[in-house]
Amino acid sequence: MQAAYDFSGKVALVTGSGRGIGRVIARQLAEYGADLVVNYVHNREPAEEIAVEIRALGRDVLVLRANIGKMDGLEHLFAQIREHYGRLDILVANAASGFNRPGLQQKESGWDHTLNVNARSFLFAAQHAVPLMEKSGEGKMVAITSPGAEHVMPDYIAVGASKAALNSLVRYLAVELASRHISVNAVSPGIVETDALTHFSFMQDEQIIPRAIAATPAGRLVTPQDIANAVCFLCSPQAEMIRGQVLVVDGGYTLPVPG
């Protein structure tokens, strides 16, 4: 069967790609022909595991530890990409972090950390990525955002604010970078069953997943593969005229239902 997309000869960076959604995105891009930069910050073992899978597909892969929430971490990451590949075609800003607690319990350190990892890093990663993308003549940037940018979720104030800032950055950069032949968009997943869900207090309710499925018109939860499919579409020539948009992939969960 012919592949849906052809990313042969392209280099893709997926931040936070050692596990969860980022891992599946990285593998999908590799299946369509891209060489990969797998980024992690804490646990190298799962990052090396996905690297083995990518190499088995015949792709080149660079595994890099970098805390993208810190400026020196970003500089270190992109310095190694420049040295190894000398170019970058696709940037997927997937890594995310945050302190889930009510607004009145938020601390300055947690707020700063959340905004730095989830929003600031995308702006400055873009600054580093643009010269590398211009060498290729074009580029694609996709940020993984959250419905919490627009909808109130329990104990999600810091992450929600950071994702709202991320969505704004996507719009501004889409306009600014269009003349450089770089498209910028975002994907907003619905509820995806990954390890990250265990950090939310509302997950203590055993009925939360069944209720979410019942409230989803598509009849199931979103999978990491669904998100990877959306990212690959936005990175393809077929999405050339989609700029500065947030593509919601939630099976219809956030649609208003009359009644």
In total, how many domains does the architecture comprise?
1
User: What value does the Rg take, in angstroms?
Assistant: 18 Å
Structural class: alpha/beta
Approximate helicity band: 40-55%
Mean pLDDT: 93
In the sheet with the most strands, the strands line up as: 3-2-1-4-5-6-7
Task: Output the helix-strand order.
Answer: EHEHEHEHEHEHHE
* Strands, total number: 7
End-to-end span in angstroms?
A: 44 Å
Q: Outline the biggest β-sheet.
A: 7 strands, parallel
Spatial shape: globular
- Beta-strand fraction estimate: 5-15%
- Here the CATH topology equals Rossmann fold
Low-confidence stretches: none
Assigned CATH class: Alpha Beta
Q: How many DSSP helices?
A: 7
Q: Considering the protein shown, what is the CATH homologous superfamily?
A: NAD(P)-binding Rossmann-like Domain
CATH architecture: 3-Layer(aba) Sandwich
GO molecular function, one term: oxidoreductase activity
Protein name: Enoyl-[acyl-carrier protein] reductase III
Family: Belongs to the short-chain dehydrogenases/reductases (SDR) family.
Pfam families: adh_short_C2
Describe this structure in words.
By secondary structure, this protein is an alpha/beta fold. The chain has one domain (11-248): NAD(P)-binding Rossmann-like Domain (Rossmann fold, 3-Layer(aba) Sandwich), CATH 3.40.50.720. Helix content is 41%, strand content 14%. It has seven helices and seven strands, in the order βαβαβαβαβαβααβ. It has helices spanning 20-31, 44-56, 71-84, 108-136, 157-177, 208-214, 224-234; strands at residues 11-14, 35-40, 61-65, 90-93, 139-144, 182-189, 246-249. α3 runs parallel beside α4. It is globular. It starts with 10 loop residues before the first strand and ends in a 10-residue tail after the last strand.
